[in-house]
């Protein structure tokens, strides 16, 4: 007990450990692991339709440049999925009406991860349910966010191709490509958060989440393809033919976890939810505010107000 009190006093007096502990506490309060698992599940279900949509857009935009189209698609789609995605795109109906219906189905399937991310984002920001947008406007936001994600994926593919086309300075080209991926991920995450967060939020409230989130996305883009075969190989004795699925779930969960933690960093920074108490018998003002936000999130109808008091 004495050691806990000493640690509590120590972290309360120093901003960095106090902020880090506050992020950990909020992650636990919000069920951050569960939210990351939900995004992972919907992300796995959405990845194939999203890749089909991205390749369809690239094929339409670069139909007169087949070699460039092939290189951009190879940069976007993981090698293990390229044959499946290419055969699926080739099987899309040629008739315009049937193609529109097929693409609409892909959009509906691919937006699952966006809807899950939107729910998580509003939960972490403690947006009351009474303030959340009705079902009439939400689909438009979700589709717009999906379009932003696809635009970012195509942009990253083009950056990789552009870097590979300049072999004279490989390190400089690679560095510029990584910087472009980081900038693209930052802009996409920032705009997607503005779309999905169902209350006004200035850029200064969102960039603390977009910056580390973009770094996590860039790291996954750079190393994901290299480490996936190793994960599959190690999972093979346990999962057998499902080893590839287990490997993809692992990578998606790690990325989802990083994005959730990044969003928690922004939420703690925005609401000034630090320092939090290690010794629960001596709660701080930040503890009281955090509990108030959790309670207010459950307000369901326009006139409802929920208050939280500590003894």
Write up what this structure looks like.
The protein is an all-alpha fold and 311 residues long. It has one domain. The chain is built from twelve helices and no strands. α2 (15-29) packs across α11. The radius of gyration is 22 Å and the shape is globular.
Contiguous runs where pLDDT drops below 50 for at least 5 residues: none
What is the total tally of β strands? 0
Strand fraction equals under 5%
Element-level helix/strand string: HHHHHHHHHHHH
Count of folded domains? 1
Question: Nutshell version of this structure?
Answer:
The protein has 311 residues and is mainly alpha-helical. It has helices at 2-13, 15-29, 32-61, 66-76, 82-90, 96-110, 112-124, 138-164, 170-196, 203-239, 243-271, 285-297.
Question: Which features does this protein show?
Answer:
0% strand, 311 residues, globular, mainly alpha, 77% helix
How is this fold's topology laid out?
Blueprint (H helix, E strand, L loop, with lengths): L1 H12 L1 H15 L2 H30 L4 H11 L5 H9 L5 H15 L1 H13 L13 H27 L5 H27 L6 H37 L3 H29 L13 H13 L14
Helix pairs in contact: 2-11, 3-4, 3-5, 3-6, 3-7, 3-8, 3-11, 4-8, 8-9, 9-10, 10-11
